[in-house]
Design goal:
The protein contains 23 helices and 14 strands. A six-stranded mixed sheet has the order 8-9-10-5-11-12, with helices on both faces. It has a four-stranded antiparallel sheet with strand order 4-3-6-7, with helices on one face. Strand 6 and strand 7 form a beta hairpin. It is α/β, with parallel strands linked by helices.
Length: 642
């Protein structure tokens, strides 16, 4: 077991123990102090026959003469304090878990459970219920039920706005949340202005409080909490992949839109359930996930459960402070306590995170957590390469604009190593995206091993084609090993875990690209060339039949720029892997590719064996520049001089 896994297990075990211990001690505090031992015996009497004392001396004497009998003890502990403690812990766990989910889905470190307008919807529903006198309907559940309904409606409106333009893009969701929240805030102000008598009740509810809550509120919260949190915890591995960006995650085999919608609905249900019974409590979902990531890293199978435990502890003790610290029996809204604590604490966390981001470039951050998984002999060997058939392909990014690709027809046979050359803007990256199935709307067919690549589901597509992008969309703060391990996603069951064989294949790929010694480093602390080699290892670990490379040697020093295509050529010869690589280095392309395709202004200008098409005339017509083509004296391959 690695050091980080041991730390995670210890952290979670300590969190569970502290939650149980805190629940007992929190029940002992209040206007009437009760010894913790008496609280424990009272709670234990629910599960076994334990005799309670006929008369218990307490730490205060507010109206009870300093003594409680067994009946009063049960009433105070089991009917007043215990349900409030459980409710505070459940709401804290739900808000923190939802905050971690929203930050992962939206790729925004400032996202919290209220980013998508859920709090605004609940607040408007509560304001409406208070103003219209509907709090007592539905057997006293009127206010929380109406708040829950309007919170859900607000989330639905945001999701509808997020779909404008296609998909569920994070930026569209955030903007939709801002718009919906602003509109609901105006409606709340309107309700206050029309009914001034309800202003106090509305303001107190908006500040958040557990005062007067009981067992029935727990039963109102639990269904949404459980139904929403369970899928989130099961999809932690997939949540990591959202940090790659939509294209790269889709290339790994993940259905990004479906997962994003699932996580948003689940986190929204959890948030709506919590807000409906507690009011608006800020900073829990914002601060707690950041604190957890500082201790355990950014992998969500650690962040999600740890955030829930820490959120439960934070809100429990915030509520305990809200009802015990003010003198004279006055109770503060718990939202005030969390805001007073959360604001300065978040500033401290932000400062430490910035310092860590700078400092970890100077050390092997996370190196002590290097996976203890040796590369097995033969790990990463591939099946026979696939065939690419493209017939009369045309593609334009905007309707009516000139096509980026025009009448592209080509066939790449299994086991070929083909180079794609052309000037900037000739359509090389677009062609690779079309061949990988990531671009929609083109005319013509693209077949990989006989299948229409654009029509395949993401997982099956990932088994056929792997693509190395020219530059990563995003670099998540994960270890290089974890980043490379995502290449195995399509070969693992949806709710399964990566096995020892997957880890061995990844280590073999890291060794093949020369970055095995960086496996424990944070990926966002690597240099550009190191990161490129890690991404190359992830692409190789995917074990697809066809490998599409977009400027794989960009940013590499001369030694690695030569050794990487050499390793690919060796794998191509040994395993029959089909390689189609867009390149700008003419000499590397001529040195390692058996066949070259020249692209200019979206059309194929030349296509054939390297020895036939790599000549001064072809190069001049493609690049509008004079070249001197020579034969390498030792390797016998054509090379160019400017």
């Amino acid at each position: 077991m690695s050091g980080l896994t041991e730390r995670t297990a210890l952290f979670l075990a300590a969190g569970v123990f502290l939650c149980l211990l805190s629940a007992v001690f929190a029940c002992s505090f209040g206007p009437l102090d009760i010894p913790a031992a008496a609280v424990f015996r009272t709670i234990s009497s629910l599960f076994s026959d334990i005799d309670l004392p006929d008369l218990l001396e307490t730490g205060s004497a507010q109206g009870l003469g300093g003594f409680l009998d067994a009946r009063a003890l049960r009433l105070v502990v089991l009917e007043i304090r215990l349900p409030r403690v459980i409710l505070a812990m459940a709401a804290g766990a739900g808000l923190a878990l939802s905050g971690a989910v929203f930050q992962a889905v939206l790729r925004n470190p400032l996202a919290d459970p209220f980013t998508l307008g859920v709090s605004g919807g609940a607040a408007f529903g509560a304001a409406l219920a208070i103003s219209l006198g509907l709090t007592g309907i539905f057997y006293g559940f009127g206010l929380p039920l109406i708040a829950f309904v309007f919170a859900t409606l607000a989330l639905g409106c945001v999701l509808m706005l997020g779909r404008i333009g296609g998909g569920l893009r994070p930026e569209s969701l955030v903007l939709g949340g801002v718009v919906v929240s602003a509109f609901l805030a105006a409606l709340i102000a309107l309700v206050k202005a029309l009914d001034e008598s309800s202003v106090t009740g509305i303001v107190f509810w908006i500040m958040g409080s557990f005062q007067g809550r009981g067992w029935r509120d727990i039963f109102l919260l639990l269904p949404g909490f459980l139904l929403g949190s369970l899928p989130v915890l099961l999809c932690a591995r997939q949540a990591d992949m959202l940090g790659l960006g939509d294209n790269e995650a889709g290339q790994m085999g993940l259905n990004v839109s479906r997962l994003r919608l699932l996580l948003l609905l689940c986190a929204g249900a959890v948030t709506a359930s919590c807000v409906a019974v507690s009011g608006i409590i800020g900073f829990v979902g914002l601060v707690v996930p950041h604190l957890v990531r500082m201790v355990l890293g950014a992998e969500h199978h650690r962040v999600f459960p740890a955030s829930a435990l820490c959120g439960a502890l934070l809100l429990l003790w915030s509520d305990t402070a809200a009802r015990t610290l003010p003198p004279g029996g006055v109770e503060l809204p718990v939202g005030v306590i969390t805001a007073l604590f959360g604001g300065p604490f978040f500033c401290i966390i932000l400062g430490k995170k910035q310092g860590r981001a700078v400092g970890r470039r100077e050390e092997s951050a996370g190196a002590k957590f290097l996976p203890r998984t040796p590369a097995l002999p033969g790990a990463g060997r591939q099946a026979k390469g696939g065939e690419i058939c493209c017939d009369d392909l045309r593609f334009a990014y905007k309707s009516g604009s000139p096509p980026v690709l025009d009448e592209i027809s080509l066939r790449i046979r299994p086991g070929e190593f083909v180079g794609l050359l052309g000037p900037n803007g000739s359509g090389k990256s677009t062609l690779l995206l079309c061949l990988s199935g990531l671009l929609k709307g083109q005319t013509g067919k693209v077949l990989v091993s006989g299948d229409d690549i654009a029509a395949l589901p993401e997982r099956k597509r990932a088994l056929l084609v792997s693509r190395l992008p020219q530059r990563p969309e995003f670099v998540p703060p994960l270890s290089a090993f974890s980043l490379a391990l995502m290449g195995r996603y399509a070969r693992v069951p949806f709710l399964g875990a990566y096995g020892s064989e997957d880890r061995s294949i990844v280590m073999a790929a890291l060794e093949e690209t020369g970055v095995a010694h960086l496996a424990g480093r944070y990926a966002d602390s690597l240099s550009g060339g190191e990161l490129q080699r890690v991404l190359m290892a992830r692409t190789l670990a995917q074990d697809a039949q066809v490998l599409l490379l977009d400027e794989a040697t960009a940013g590499l020093d001369p030694a690695f720029a030569r050794s990487l295509p050499a390793a690919l050529a060796l794998r191509n010869k040994k395993t029959g892997l089909t390689v189609f690589a867009a390149m700008h280095d003419l000499n590397l392309a001529a040195l390692f590719c058996d066949r070259l395709i020249f692209l200019k202004q979206g059309k194929i200008l030349a296509d054939g064996p390297t020895a036939e098409v790599f000549n001064a005339q072809t190069l001049r017509s493609v690049f509008a520049c004079d070249f001197c083509v020579l034969t390498h004296p030792r390797l016998g391959r054509p090379q160019v001089l400017l």
